[in-house]
From TrEMBL, chain A:
<dbReference type="InterPro" id="IPR009078">
    <property type="entry name" value="Ferritin-like_SF"/>
</dbReference>
<dbReference type="GO" id="GO:0004497">
    <property type="term" value="F:monooxygenase activity"/>
</dbReference>
<protein>
    <recommendedName>
        <fullName>propane 2-monooxygenase</fullName>
        <ecNumber>1.14.13.227</ecNumber>
    </recommendedName>
</protein>
<keyword id="KW-0560">Oxidoreductase</keyword>
<dbReference type="InterPro" id="IPR003430">
    <property type="entry name" value="Phenol_Hydrox"/>
</dbReference>
<keyword id="KW-0503">Monooxygenase</keyword>
<dbReference type="InterPro" id="IPR012348">
    <property type="entry name" value="RNR-like"/>
</dbReference>
<dbReference type="Pfam" id="PF02332">
    <property type="entry name" value="Phenol_Hydrox"/>
</dbReference>
Automatic annotation (TrEMBL), chain B:
<dbReference type="InterPro" id="IPR007029">
    <property type="entry name" value="YHS_dom"/>
</dbReference>
<dbReference type="InterPro" id="IPR012348">
    <property type="entry name" value="RNR-like"/>
</dbReference>
<dbReference type="GO" id="GO:0004497">
    <property type="term" value="F:monooxygenase activity"/>
</dbReference>
<protein>
    <recommendedName>
        <fullName>propane 2-monooxygenase</fullName>
        <ecNumber>1.14.13.227</ecNumber>
    </recommendedName>
</protein>
<dbReference type="Pfam" id="PF04945">
    <property type="entry name" value="YHS"/>
</dbReference>
<keyword id="KW-0503">Monooxygenase</keyword>
<dbReference type="InterPro" id="IPR009078">
    <property type="entry name" value="Ferritin-like_SF"/>
</dbReference>
<dbReference type="Pfam" id="PF02332">
    <property type="entry name" value="Phenol_Hydrox"/>
</dbReference>
<dbReference type="InterPro" id="IPR003430">
    <property type="entry name" value="Phenol_Hydrox"/>
</dbReference>
Length: 377, 503
């Protein structure tokens, strides 16, 4: 006796005319339309289409070809972050019940309050400018990772706030207010604050990703969620290192997809902004009848002279020195509380272990800031 | 130090995170904030009504996702597609699929735009969450179509269909209009006109219809989406009150946006009227009653009474939408039937029970104005097909085939000249919208014009290739291969049997 129901044969084995390998691709690839938007902007960039390759200097032969190494779409992303939210809440809950804060050395308590709390503004500014990326980036796969990363940054800003309310000195909202004053006025934070303001006024979404994920974030996050763990433990603080481990998981993903994105895009030989149309099956597109005059033969009118690799190198040579300076400027916060930590060494380590290998992986031969194979001064 | 209460804690986690920039000009950070003439004095006192933190958001949404995807898995595992009462339902699902899902996606990008450009943290917080929600909606809807596409026509090239087909220019023009407007207009357009006024009528009757015909998965999509929408509706309401209370000079601007976007949203929902009145064979509610309940009662008599104190009146053309309620679904179905040979979802011959239901629900209009049209198809399904691509309204993009509700035997079509060119409109509502921003609306992408310019290639095959489906996927359902296959699926599963009980 078999309880097997007769098989109902599908009429097509794959759902879409384009190939997809998994659920992530099924709900991500081609989700963004490319052609035939109805109108152009009323106020700014009035010559641009709703999804326009000219929002970045980068060019791609297929904007839909990027893949998130973790294949996050809404369902797995939300489930994954729900676990982290539970972990953070139970961490704080247990730590408060056990009074773990009472075992923390005074110097570290004062330092951590003045260091971690102001950086919630750094996280939040990143989240805000990633919304710009979400709006203007080309293609579902790219803007989707930006969407979840923005949400992560917002989450970390809240976790730092939540920690700040209860932990370092139990200072409540006064501690957060003090943190904001430091962010706005303490000389040690001004480089980083200014950097984030410059990011907030950067319009090219590829440049925003460069400034955030290739320059400032590896440097700051390397201290915030990794480098300081041993120091914290040495001062009797186990809460921040545990929080860091959870945040580190988000940071790792952010680094993974950023590396995947930049190595993918810098290898792309596309010379025209319009080459991606071939991948969409519009290789014979004569141009939109409405704007035919502005894009008469778009595939032969590249507006960018440099290759993607050169563009990224140019961005990095602008942003990396700024980032290095801004992050090195944080040292006085450590010094005035007697915390034995060298920001310069941490920065150097990050440059050696993360940034320089990535720059090399992108095929960028030399970057003046990195001084070839030399150590950063 | 006193412990913070829930509200204080929420404030501490979500406010004062942005700062007034010191090294760059504030206007460089918010380049669009002054473009529309909206005045903000002290928006920091505004609260978002839902008080959702990152932690709460992912916990609540993870629960919803668990529930919904469990239902989806069960539906897929047990051939849910074969178990509906009549497969013509899926023609309606196709319409919804290829039109609504891209709209959700556009709303996702739009919410990021609004949150980035409006410097009010209460609003930004809600829009961040909503930007994620809208991506969720697009993706859970796509999952339904990904499954159905293995068994039914019409879905398999939805991206192309969305980019190139005349039918999809309707929802696309709505969201493209908002995406190219200033951030405050976009906020009123979506958060208020779309979400607050109309999403109940989009998701509740449609989810109820899905449940009534046995499409358990889509019923769950509708209900799960709607549970997010209640948050979006609250945002729409509080954002609008904030703008009205910030400064009196905002009132006429908000009124102008309400006037425009009420009619835009109302026209966009025309197809929903057919999805409620025509496609399901078991119908829980009519468009007319749903409109009375969700729009007339809740919005006109509820909400706009509350807004009187701000000097806000009901939106222009509200009366027209009320007059149209007895005609709306029939007219729209007639338009779809005219063009069913160039659409990825099919029309269908009305059955005796359809005629009976429509007669009972619409005693004043159906038999007199519309039944004769549908009867023409009894003998030949293409008897009512219009040749060529339809002439469309320059604002809403719907074919200009609406009757004047005051005199249903004449057309409502309107005309206006702009820079030596004549434009046509489906209704006075759309014509007024055009006249207020002609430079915007003359840009609309018209597939017929694109076709004539050679973009679709030279043959009919080229055109269908561009549309993303084939002629076999069009026309009428009961004579289609989809219906034939559905019968075979049911036989394979034994669902064609009926069991007698002696007793």
């Amino acid at each position: 006796m078999s309880a097997r129901v007769k098989r109902v044969e599908p009429v097509r084995e794959r759902p879409w005319d384009w190939a997809t390998k998994n659920e992530y691709e099924e709900v991500t690839v081609r989700i963004q339309p490319y052609l035939h938007g109805h109108y152009r902007h009323k106020y700014r960039k009035t010559e641009y289409d709703i999804y326009d390759p000219r929002y970045t200097r980068l060019r791609s032969s297929n904007w839909d070809a990027f893949r998130d190494p973790k294949r996050f779409w809404y369902y797995p992303y939300t489930l994954n972050r729900k676990r982290m939210a539970d972990d953070v809440e139970s961490l704080f809950d247990r730590a408060l019940k056990l009074g773990l804060q009472d075992h923390v050395a005074d110097s570290w308590r004062r330092f951590s309050e003045e260091f971690y709390i102001p950086l919630r503004h750094y996280e939040y500014a990143g989240a805000v400018q990633l919304q710009h990326v979400v709006r203007y980036a080309m293609g579902g796969p790219i803007e989707q990772v930006a969407t979840y990363t923005a949400f992560d940054k917002q989450g970390r800003a809240q976790w730092l706030s939540s920690w700040g309310l209860d932990f370092p000195g139990g200072g409540g909202s006064a501690a957060l207010e003090h943190g904001k004053e430091l962010w706005l006025d303490d000389p040690a934070f001004q480089g980083l604050r200014e950097y984030m303001e410059q990011v907030l006024t950067t319009e090219d979404w590829g440049e925003v990703l460069t400034a955030l994920h290739l320059a400032v974030e590896p440097l700051v996050d390397g201290i915030l969620y990794d480098g300081l763990n041993a120091v914290a433990l040495a001062h009797g603080d186990v809460v921040l290192p545990e929080l860091s481990l959870i945040c580190q998981e988000q940071i790792k993903w952010q680094e993974q997809w950023s590396q995947a994105f930049f190595t993918w895009i810098t290898e792309d030989p596309a010379s025209s902004r319009w080459e991606y149309l071939k991948a969409l099956g519009y290789e014979n597109w004569p141009g939109d009848y409405r704007w035919g005059k502005t894009l008469s033969d778009p595939r032969e009118t590249p507006e960018e002279e440099l290759t993607n690799r050169e563009v990224v190198a140019e961005w990095l040579s602008l942003w990396l020195p700024r980032a290095l300076e801004a992050v090195r400027g944080l040292q006085p916060v450590f010094d005035r509380h007697g915390i034995p930590f060298s920001v310069a060494s941490s920065v150097e380590r990050t440059v050696d272990q993360a940034i320089r290998p990535l720059v090399r992986a992108m095929g960028i031969e030399s970057l003046p800031t990195l001084g070839g194979e030399q150590h950063v001064e | 130090m006193a412990k913070l209460g829930t509200t204080g804690r929420y404030r501490a986690l979500t406010r004062d995170l942005m700062w007034d920039p010191k090294s760059v000009d504030w206007k460089q950070v918010y380049p669009l904030v002054e473009a529309e003439g909206i005045i903000l004095k002290d928006p920091s006192r505004w609260e978002d009504p839902f008080r959702m933190t990152f932690n709460q958001y992912v916990k609540i949404q993870a629960e919803k996702e668990h529930l919904h995807h469990a239902i989806r898995h069960a539906f897929e595992a047990h051939h849910g597609h074969a178990r509906v009462v009549d497969s013509r339902w899926f023609e309606g699902v196709k319409a919804f699929a290829v039109a609504v899902q891209p709209a959700e996606y556009q709303a996702h990008r739009l919410m990021a735009y609004i949150g980035r450009n409006i410097p009010v943290e209460a609003i930004r917080f809600a829009t961040f969450n909503q930007a994620l929600d809208e991506l969720r909606h697009a993706q859970i809807e796509i999952k339904h179509y990904a499954y159905l596409s293995r068994y039914y026509d019409g879905f398999h090239a939805y991206a192309k269909t969305n980019e190139n087909l005349w039918f999809n220019t309707v929802p696309k023009s709505f969201f493209d209009d908002a995406l190219t407007a200033g951030p405050f207009e976009a906020l009123i357009a979506i958060a208020f006109s779309f979400e607050y006024v109309f999403t109940n009528i989009l998701f509740l009757p449609f989810a109820a219809s899905a449940a009534a015909v046995g499409d358990e998965h889509f019923a769950s999509v509708g209900k799960s989406v709607q549970s997010d929408e209640s948050r979006h509706m609250a945002l729409g309401m509080s954002a609008m009150k904030m703008l009205l209370e910030e400064d009196d000079r905002n009132v006429p601007i908000v009124q102008r946006y309400l006037d425009k976007w009420y009619w835009r949203a109302y026209r966009l929902f025309s197809v929903v009227a057919t999805l409620v009145d025509y496609y399901p064979r078991v119908r829980p509610i009519s468009w007319k009653r749903a409109f009375e309940m969700y729009v007339e009662e809740q919005v006109l008599h509820g909400l706009f009474k509350d807004l009187e104190k701000y000097g806000i009146r009901p939106p222009r053309n509200f009366e027209d939408s009320i007059k149209e309620k007895e005609h709306y679904s029939h007219v729209t179905m007639r338009i779809l039937d005219h063009a069913k040979q160039v659409n990825y979802f099919r029309g269908f011959k009305l059955q005796p029970d359809d005629y009976e239901w429509l007669h009972n629900e619409y005693p004043n209009t159906f038999d007199r104005y519309y039944a004769p049209f549908f009867r023409k198809m009894d003998d030949h399904v293409l008897a009512v097909a219009s040749p060529g691509l339809p002439a469309v309204c320059a604002v809403c993009q719907i074919p200009t085939e609406f009757p004047n509700p005051d005199n249903p035997s004449e057309m409502w079509t309107q005309y206006a000249e702009h820079k030596g060119k004549t434009y046509q409109f489906c209704s006075p509502g759309c014509k007024t919208i055009f006249l207020e921003e002609p430079e915007k609306y003359i840009q609309f992408w018209w597939p017929a014009e694109s076709y004539l310019s050679g973009e679709f290639g030279s043959t009919l095959e080229d055109m269908f290739e561009y549309f993303g489906f084939t002629p076999e996927e069009t026309n009428e359902h009961y004579s289609s291969r989809d219906y034939y296959r559905w019968i075979r699926y049911r036989e394979a599963l034994g669902l064609d049997r009926s069991f007698q009980v002696n007793g």
